[in-house]
Design brief:
alpha/beta, two-stranded antiparallel sheet, 11 strands, WH-like_DNA-bd_sf
């Protein structure tokens, strides 16, 4: 029978996520040589090749992917075991590390933390602001316990590593300068703004969201300016330098701009929470998830 070493399997799993030995070593606070040695030992224990050369890097063999496919349920069960032990030892008490994209922090995380202070004061939330896609990498690496991200940045729903919880659909409004000729036009659509200079980041999820929304409306947006922070984007809109799509979650950061809703058929971005499979059973994590659900929909029942 093969020898299954969970520590080495976690290293192999992290290599799959991070892509390189160097990135894996950094994520696990090891040296690259130690990572390579551990994986060599694991291959010897299992009796199969786990890595193969791919240019100047390595990649997982089919055998390695087979091993990980069969060990994912083990990792999930270990998460459940940790949750059960935490419930036994601490009940509702515990620390939950949350990785959240920037606009989710004031809109969802802060209200959730405030509510938890009243309902479950022994639950501590430690927040790490990060980009939407990075939140999943932190979750997979064990650096956070719960990730707030966008569905567009999420792994496939069938990914066995994570349990995803839809929170809500965040409508996208269009920000216009206050003196724009269409600022008060009835029935405004994105198509009406096809000739405008648009302001959005040069890359990343918000660039993709803006481009997809405009292309769905029948045009490719002309990028007049590139910015990724809402303070900069709204300041440029206010100055008449262009228009921008703004998530309603970020509306509290508005400058002197006009925000126009785009109707029921307007673009939205879907916000999701995720935990490692089995992690939702931990009492403290479950409390934080419930608080986030209520922050996303204050009308929901407890």
């Amino acid at each position: 029978m093969s020898e299954w070493d969970l520590r080495k399997l976690r290293i192999l799993r992290t290599l799959r996520e991070r892509g390189t030995v160097t990135a894996t070593a950094a994520a696990l606070h090891m040296t690259p040589s130690a990572v390579s040695q551990q994986l060599t030992n694991l291959a010897a224990q299992l009796g199969v090749d786990l890595l193969e050369a791919h240019g100047r890097r390595v990649r997982l063999t089919d055998a390695a992917r087979l091993v990980l496919a069969h060990t994912e349920p083990v990792f999930e069960q270990l998460e459940r075991a940790d949750a059960a032990l935490a419930a036994y030892a601490h009940g509702d008490a515990g620390e939950v590390r949350v990785g959240a994209f920037p606009t989710a922090v004031p809109a969802l995380v802060v209200p959730a933390v405030r509510a938890l202070r009243d309902t479950h004061p022994r639950v501590t939330v430690r927040v790490r602001e990060t980009e939407a896609a990075e939140a999943y990498r932190l979750l997979a690496a064990g650096d956070v316990d719960l990730a707030l991200s966008l569905a567009a940045e999420a792994p496939g729903a069938a990914d066995p590593r994570f349990t995803q919880v839809p929170l809500f659909a965040d409508p996208l409004d269009v920000a216009l300068p206050p003196d724009h000729p269409l600022a008060s036009a009835p029935g405004l659509t994105l198509t009406d703004l096809a000739a405008e200079p648009w302001i959005y980041g040069g890359s990343g999820p918000w660039s993709d969201i803006t481009r997809r929304a405009c292309e769905a409306a029948g045009f490719t947006p002309h990028q007049g300016h590139s910015a990724s922070g809402w303070t900069a984007i709204l300041a440029m809109v206010e100055a008449g330098m262009g228009v921008a799509l703004v998530p309603r979650m970020a509306a509290g950061r508005r400058a002197a701009v006009v925000l126009r809703e785009l109707g029921a058929d307007g673009p939205v971005r879907h916000v999701v929470a995720a935990v490692r499979s089995g992690g939702a059973a931990a009492p403290a994590t479950a409390r934080v998830l419930d608080a986030l659900r209520r922050a996303a929909d204050p009308t929901s029942e407890e």
